[in-house]
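BUG-245 | component: ligand-complex export | severity: low

The export step for biotinyl-5-AMP jobs runs without errors, but we want the raw record kept on the ticket for reference. Input record follows.
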Amino acid sequence: MKYLFFPSLDSTNSYCKREYERLDDSTLVYTYHQTQGKGRLGRRWEDDEGSLLFSILLKKDLAEERVPLLSLLCSSALFLTLRDENIPSLIKWPNDVLVEEKKVSGILLESVISERLDALILGIGINVNNEKFPDDIKEKATSLFLQTGKRFDKKRLLENYVSHFEKLYSDYQRGKDTFLTILKENSYLDGKQVSLNYYGENKEGVVLGIKENGNLLLKGKKGIFEVQSGEVTLENSYHKRSNAL
Ligand code: BT5
């Protein structure tokens, strides 16, 4: 992995999108402040100087049909990184990592497609040393500092994340999805009643688990159904009343 650091950027994902042609495969762009941090579906990713924000650019050997699994692989790598720090976390399908029911990290996968899939951008935001959050998210966001009372060396954390990511990714490229085991054992949504927006349609069900292809398996009123990651907004899996995170 090649590291590229900027004290501040609009967004590490946007930077990778603009520059993907000249950047090498497996370049990691990281920063501690984004002026236009992006979440999914046009939402914002908030940060302050306590944040760790990065994107991994992948250009080689991209298997299009297995792309949705990568967001879950990124979450699994973070789960292992946090476990090394003795911080128990859970992976919330499709793109969050939670500590004590609160969001400590979010993942935004983006692709560059011309005639084929040219590049993938795996964007990861981790709340590390953040002491507080804006009012609208303070109930649902947390940081490693707020959970442990300790400050973390962000570069060391990043390097440890990358070592986990590289192992899981090399298995994945060989068709061996080690991360799925981690995911299945540490999935936040299992057994929970959720309502989700799937291609504009509202669906409800109890989560049965995550399938080998990364889809979420649910049991609804009309029977068992599954939904693909990347197309879903979970609406009430945090608290019964809250809106989409
Ligand atoms: C995500 O979107 O969770 C994906 C976040 C990805 C951020 C990384 S940072 C590096 C790279 N460069 C970028 O520009 N982005 C990526 P989503 O599931 O849509 O969640 C966004 C929602 O989470 C917001 O609408 C808020 O409710 C909440 N949120 C915003 N900032 C947060 C934070 N720092 N911690 C926890 N929750 C936050």
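Assignee comment: Attached the raw record above. The helical segments are 12-19, 69-84, 144-148, 154-173, 178-185.
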